Structure formats: structure tokens, C-alpha cells
Amino acid sequence: MSSESLREKYGETLVKLGEKYNDIVVLDADLSSSTKTATFGKKFPDRFFNMGISEQSMVSSAAGLALSGKRVFVSTFAVFLMRTYEQIRQSICYNNVNVKFVVTHAGITVGEDGATHQIVEDVGIMSGLPNMKVIVPVDSIETQSVLEYLTENTTTPYYVRLSREKFPVLNEPDYKYTEGKSVTFRDGKDLTIFANGVMVSFALQAAEELRTHGIDVRVINLSTVKPIDRDSIIKAAKETGKIVTAEEHSIYNGIGSRVCEVVSEEYPAIVKRLGMRDTFGKSGKSWELFDYFHMGVQDIVKLGLECFREDKK
Questions:
Q1: Which CATH number fits domain 3-168: 3.40.50.970, 3.30.70.120, 2.60.40.420, 3.40.50.2300?
Q2: Quick check: 72 pLDDT over 90?
């Protein structure tokens, strides 16, 4: 299984879209070499704006550009965009304008940068905003498809969450993103694992191990966090009765919370949530941190087995 950088795919796709649509503009907060928007800036210097370390001004300017008819992409590290919550709420979401926030370096895969940079609350923060939609792509292929979809089919705010690390490529090259629809990577009748981002690859590995325990596992990519695929969740609750959620994010207000909301309202089922548990991150090697925070493959396996032990009580 090959791995590719989501942020590099973002930069490449921006250039292709910029060649096709001359009303696309890109704003960055002095991090374009890391977010890969510099690729667009080199190709289209008159449509690229480095706003410096002034994220609030960047978001306010983005609103003005969108209101003047531009298709606007805004990028920085995920953690730094959070300081602009008020501007996103008042200028972007309240006016429901065409600004796409594509952030990088989210989650614990920021690695050695440590707790101050490892934002694990952002999906919940952005999901709470009226008019904002939230997407966490699983790989580089979905990243490209998401960007194409957002550019060509939408005129409202979106938050797209990318990582610094390379992620395994799971989709076929011809994959096309559909908003609000999950993707089943593996079918099963005993247990469903809902995941997004890099956790989908972990879930697939866990499913193989759970198979050795006689458990048939369904693995579903919930890349669209808002609007969530309620039908897929209800179907899983009815057909498997047991659910594990896995995300590189806090268990509070991420897909774990979203899934629990749906099943509690529609069809109660056993749900176990895997993610960051009311804690900040820690400096360390990206992939080792998953084990440190009990978010690795074996931790998914453990939760899957717990679902069956609880069902027998």
C-alpha cells in the first residue's frame, strides 16, 4: 500500500483548478511552503496573497474577496486558524460566503511540534458553526476529488482538514467524492468501524485481526463530518448492532459524538469511541503517538472485542 501527501496533492490540485478558473484566489498566513499553496503562488502571483502572521486579517480579507465574486481558498496550520473563530463566524458563516478553509498539520501527526501545534478540537469547533461544512479526507485521491467538487459545485463555507504526514492511498484513481455520503471499504455483519483520515487505514488493519476472532467487520469512511451520513449510521446500527468510531481528534464533538447522536435518536446500539480523551498532545514521532494515546490498531481491536463482551452482560 503506497502513501502520499495530502497537502502536496492540495498544492498540485490548486494549480490545476487555477488554470481552469481565473476567479480562484488563495490566501496564506506565512506558511505557504508548508501548506503547499506556494505552488499556486509561483504559478499565479497576482492571485496569491501572503497575509503574514495575521490570521484574523486573512479571514476578513477572504470574506471581502468572496463577496466580490471570487472563489477563495484560505490555508494555514489548523491550530492557527482557530484564533480566527470570531471572523469565521461573523464574516464568513453569517454571510454564507464562498470561502474554503483548507488547513494542514492537524492532529497528532504533527509529531515533534508537540502539544501546542497538535490541534485535536478543530473538527468540533468548525462543525458547530451554522453554514459551515466539514470534511476530513482519507487520502490524496479523496483530497483532490474534494477540492474539485468544492470548486465546481459549491458557493458556501467549508473546512477541509489535512495532515503533515503521508497517508496510505485507499481509494481507486477514478474515485469521486459525494458530499454527505460515506464510503464502505469493507463490508461485514458483526461490527461496524466508522473512521476518517488516517484512522481508516488503521481500521482496515484492525478488521483483519478481528476476523481471526471470528468477527466480521464493516469499515466505513466518514470523511464528511458535517453533514454526517445518517442513513449509513442507522443502517450499521440496525445490521451490526455494534459500532466503533476512530478519529485523529478528540472523542468530544468529532465523529464519535456525531455517531452517538444519530444512534441515540434513531436506533440505539453499542458504541465505543476511539480518539484523544480530554488531553493535549505530546511531542514525539507521529506514528508512535498513536500507541502512546491508545489510538493504534490494537486499541481498535480491543474496543471491538469489548463491544461483544458488553453485549453478553
A1: 3.40.50.970
A2: yes
Burial class (CB within 10 angstroms; exposed 0-12, middle 13-18, buried 19+) of 285: exposed
Helix pair 6-20, 140-153: axis angle to 10 deg: 30
Question: Within 10 Å of residue 122's Cβ, how many Cβ atoms?
Answer: 24
**pLDDT band (50, 70, 90) for residue 1:** confident
Which numeric CATH code is attached to 183-311? Answer: 3.40.50.920
Average pLDDT, the chain: 97
| Residues of each domain in the chain carrying CATH 3.40.50.970 | 3-168
Q: Distance (Å, rounded) from C-alpha 287 to C-alpha 283?
A: 11
The pLDDT confidence band at residue 312, using thresholds 50, 70 and 90, is: low
Please say if the pLDDT value at position 313 is more than 70. no
Render pLDDT for 11-25 as a digit per residue (tens, 0 to 9). 999 999 999 999 999
144, pLDDT greater than 70: yes
Within 10 angstroms of residue 165's Cβ, the number of other Cβ atoms is 19
Long-range contacts of 56-60 (CB under 8 A, 24+ apart): 56/83, 56/84, 56/86, 56/87, 58/27, 58/28, 58/29, 58/84, 59/84, 59/87, 59/88, 59/91, 59/92, 59/99, 60/87, 60/91
Radius of gyration of the chain (CA): 19
Would you call 55 a catalytic residue per the annotation?
yes
Question: Residue 283 phi/psi, 5° resolution?
Answer: -70, 130
Look up residue 279 and give its three cell numbers. 488531553
pTM: 0.96
Q: Which of these is catalytic: 12, 55, 142, 165?
A: 55
**Ranges for all domains in the chain classified under CATH 3.40.50.920:** 183-311
**pLDDT at residue 311, as a whole number:** 64
Confirm if 258 and 234 have CB atoms less than 8 A apart.
no
